[in-house]
């Protein structure tokens, strides 16, 4: 029974992966050098990196702290409340943040002033992704043997050392997973930045979709090329980071006591 | 008196896990806290370590209260059921972590003392169960504790390794002049390892005393015999023929590895062999010689 | 005090939902499409993810590490990039502008997350507990052990896949070629206009659908547990 599921799941999974190959086909003929020199794309890349990294970093830190507060400090009430943003699709949360910051409420005129720091986009992502990271990290904390922490305490280690030997090594893998999932998701998305972002520079996903769909798909190869290059860059990043941590992760997996 | 526990109370989910426990541990002794599962012994240990807080009562070391002192400042270390060596560090690094001045020479010295010389760079997963516990013990000692807590450290070991670790702990605790508190459900283990034993029942102390004294007044602790100041378990052995003339005994069960075969006498319907110089194994037959009313090997 | 401050920050965005009266709901093609998408995809995600995670965790196969990597790989491909690629691919098969095309692509986007959730949940529950269930006959095994154990996982998968599905504007717009309207695509067009009450109507729908589904599954599972315990006694 489960074998049928695996076969179907694999076929479905094949779709987004082969999609990358189709992108390669469609991107043929694009002048990559002129793309690199295009001021609009370059500005877009810079702002995308900024929004992605800030949102991802904040989400990882806050989500992990919240999971830790539930698991280590017993603040279970957090689990209930942090579920709430999970019920809101990204596009709807973008609209909620739009309403909140577009001047409808006193003191929040951030969108109206077309602010350059993309703060509302970042806030929307952080609000949506913190519960996601929280869920991932809560699972990791549930699997973590509490004995390690007790052991670190009784070995007379300082609180910081306790965290660094009895928690951090076990969090590397889930944090790495979450990091790349969030980076892939945030760095090349349309809905949230299109609704909330400023008109220039646009985020990479918005610019690519706009270039693809304006003028009856005349600029399509350029958009496909950007999508492909970005997917490959992320893929290289994923491979590199997993390769660099492989030895350490394997060591932990083999020596850990559940 | 070093460690003094007075009227400790702890309630979990409407149940008194500890209902006013008093006992004390003298400096340099191994004290065992014995009880069945749910008797509150592990909770007591965690309260002493600072990993749990008591609802009432005091824990003092040389009359200075430990309550409110965080676990990592109590100078109390612990050895648990599983080694719990940090898997991202090597065996030596685990010991180094606990060594106050991070001296590699000291860490190597500790490994030598638990007979793990040359294993500084070994990975945690390369150690066997017994080696892991020994490394964990070295790490606990390296932190220079004033008290070491032993939380059922022999539970997951086979009889041979269990015996070796018991010997090692006794030897090192005596050599270093340490104080140790052993928590166990195994009464025999407590009798053999500890200098004094406290029996916990339903969250309260039922009795306390030296193994010899307890052996005499508490039949549930099993049969022991003291020879030259050391307590030995009376090993139950099935004798395949009545021991008239030259009896042959089949060793069916050993309660302690390495116990020596010696005199024999009949006790409550079973044959009991007292220690002598030859060690024996389960499943093998041994010829016994009868001499002046006792049987020798 | 800290708790109150935290809750204010966390729940503040919901205020927007009450900023004005939403327009009355009209049950049109977009709503119908959305409901069909949600039910079909939640069901498929639960079924495929549970079976696949089971295989990944409990089956001995030399292909296992490879399949595991392969199944989680799409999580690291930016959704918009794979949407572009899938668009190019599906155009060739004439699937752009069809319900089937949209559903397939939505499944491709959600399934890796669902497998991940199922995998983590089953890992935490652990092999020994599932192995205990193997002593029961298949029907009783599912009825008395697997469903109760995996209730929360089923709910989470349904919730996450629904929320991801409802968040896809570009994907539905591109693969559906504008011929498969959903609440999400309509919402996006409404945002461009300035009708707050109409936009709010759609936003309410997007928030309520996952919440109702989550609550509904929880309710069904509670009934299941009640019936199951009744049969046991």
Automatic annotation (TrEMBL), chain B:
<dbReference type="InterPro" id="IPR027417">
    <property type="entry name" value="P-loop_NTPase"/>
</dbReference>
<dbReference type="Pfam" id="PF00005">
    <property type="entry name" value="ABC_tran"/>
</dbReference>
<keyword id="KW-0547">Nucleotide-binding</keyword>
<keyword id="KW-0378">Hydrolase</keyword>
<dbReference type="GO" id="GO:0016887">
    <property type="term" value="F:ATP hydrolysis activity"/>
</dbReference>
<keyword id="KW-0067">ATP-binding</keyword>
<protein>
    <submittedName>
        <fullName>Spermidine/putrescine import ATP-binding protein PotA</fullName>
        <ecNumber>3.6.3.31</ecNumber>
    </submittedName>
</protein>
<feature type="domain" description="ABC transporter">
    <location>
        <begin position="3"/>
        <end position="227"/>
    </location>
</feature>
<dbReference type="InterPro" id="IPR050093">
    <property type="entry name" value="ABC_SmlMolc_Importer"/>
</dbReference>
<keyword id="KW-0813">Transport</keyword>
<dbReference type="InterPro" id="IPR003439">
    <property type="entry name" value="ABC_transporter-like_ATP-bd"/>
</dbReference>
<dbReference type="InterPro" id="IPR003593">
    <property type="entry name" value="AAA+_ATPase"/>
</dbReference>
<dbReference type="GO" id="GO:0005524">
    <property type="term" value="F:ATP binding"/>
</dbReference>
């Amino acid at each position: 029974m489960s074998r049928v599921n695996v076969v179907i799941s694999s076929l479905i999974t094949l779709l987004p992966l082969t999609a990358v190959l189709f992108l390669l086909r469609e991107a043929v003929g694009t002048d990559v050098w002129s793309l690199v020199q295009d001021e609009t794309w370059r500005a877009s890349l810079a702002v995308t990196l900024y929004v992605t990294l800030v949102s991802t970093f904040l989400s990882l830190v806050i989500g992990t702290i919240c999971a830790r507060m539930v698991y280590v400090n017993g603040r279970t009430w957090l689990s209930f409340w942090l579920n709430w943003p999970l019920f809101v699709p990204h596009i709807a949360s973008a609209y909620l943040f739009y309403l909140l910051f577009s001047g409808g409420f006193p003191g929040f005129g951030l969108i109206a002033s077309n602010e350059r720091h993309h703060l509302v986009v970042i806030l929307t992502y952080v609000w949506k992704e913190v519960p996601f990271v929280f869920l991932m990290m809560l699972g990791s904390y549930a699997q973590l043997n509490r004995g390690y922490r007790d052991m670190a305490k009784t070995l007379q280690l300082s609180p910081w050392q306790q965290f660094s030997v009895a928690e951090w090594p076990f969090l590397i893998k889930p944090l790495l997973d979450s990091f790349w999932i969030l980076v892939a998701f945030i760095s090349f998305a349309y809905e949230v930045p299109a609704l909330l972002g400023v008109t220039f520079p646009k985020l990479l996903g918005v610019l690519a979709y706009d270039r693809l769909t304006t003028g009856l798909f005349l600029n399509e190869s350029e958009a496909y090329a950007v999508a492909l290059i970005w997917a490959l860059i992320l893929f290289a990043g994923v491979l590199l980071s997993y390769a660099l941590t492989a030895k350490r992760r394997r060591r932990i997996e083999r020596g850990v006591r559940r | 008196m070093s460690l003094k526990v007075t009227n400790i109370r702890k309630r979990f989910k409407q149940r008194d896990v500890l209902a006013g426990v008093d006992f004390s541990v003298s400096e340099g002794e191994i004290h065992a806290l014995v009880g069945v599962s749910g008797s509150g012994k592990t909770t007591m240990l965690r309260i002493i370590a600072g990993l749990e807080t008591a609802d009432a009562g005091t824990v003092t070391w040389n009359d200075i209260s430990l309550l409110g002192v965080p676990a990592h400042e109590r100078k109390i270390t612990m050895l648990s059921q599983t080694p719990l060596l940090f898997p991202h560090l090597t065996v030596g690094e685990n010991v180094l972590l606990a060594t106050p001045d991070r001296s590699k020479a000291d860490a190597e010295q500790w490994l030598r003392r638990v007979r793990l010389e040359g294993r500084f760079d070994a990975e945690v997963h390369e150690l066997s169960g017994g080696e892991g516990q020994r490394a964990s013990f070295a790490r606990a000692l390296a932190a220079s504790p004033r008290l070491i807590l032993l939380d059922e450290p022999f539970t997951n070991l086979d009889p041979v390794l269990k015996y070796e670790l018991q010997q090692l702990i006794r030897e090192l605790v005596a050599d270093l002049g340490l104080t140790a508190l052993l928590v166990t459900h195994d009464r025999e283990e407590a009798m053999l390892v500890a200098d004094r034993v406290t029996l916990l029942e339903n969250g309260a102390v039922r009795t306390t005393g030296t193994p010899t004294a307890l052996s005499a007044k508490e039949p549930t602790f099993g049969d022991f015999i003291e020879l030259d100041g050391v307590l030995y378990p009376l090993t139950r052995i099935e004798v395949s023929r009545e021991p008239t003339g030259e009896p042959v005994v089949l060793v069916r069960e050993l309660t302690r590895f390495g116990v020596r075969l010696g005199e024999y006498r009949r006790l409550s319907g079973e044959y009991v062999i007292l220690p002598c110089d030859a060690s024996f194994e389960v499943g093998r037959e041994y010829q016994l010689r009868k001499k002046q009313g006792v049987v020798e090997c | 005090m800290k708790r109150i401050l935290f809750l204010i920050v966390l729940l503040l965005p919901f205020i927007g939902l009450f900023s004005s009266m939403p327009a009355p709901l009209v049950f049109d093609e977009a709503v119908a499409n959305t409901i069909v998408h949600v039910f079909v995809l939640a069901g498929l995600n639960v079924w495929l993810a549970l079976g696949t995670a089971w295989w990944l965790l409990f089956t001995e196969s030399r292909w296992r590490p490879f399949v595991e990597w392969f199944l989680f790989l799409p999580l690291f491909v930016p959704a918009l990039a794979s949407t572009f690629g899938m668009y190019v691919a599906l155009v060739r098969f004439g699937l752009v502008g069809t319900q089937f095309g949209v559903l397939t692509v939505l499944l491709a986007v959600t399934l890796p997350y669902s497998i991940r959730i199922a995998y983590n949940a089953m890992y935490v529950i652990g092999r020994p507990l599932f192995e205990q269930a193997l002593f029961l006959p298949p029907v009783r095994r599912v009825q008395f052990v697997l469903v109760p154990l995996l209730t929360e996982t089923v709910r989470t998968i349904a919730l996450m896949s629904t929320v991801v599905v409802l968040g896809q504007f570009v994907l539905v717009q591109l693969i559906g070629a504008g011929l498969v309207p959903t609440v999400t695509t309509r919402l996006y067009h409404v945002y461009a206009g300035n009708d707050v009450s109409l936009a709010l109507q759609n936003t309410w729908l997007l928030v309520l659908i996952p919440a109702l589904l989550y609550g509904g599954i929880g309710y069904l599972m509670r009934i299941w547990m009640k019936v199951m315990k009744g049969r046991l006694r």
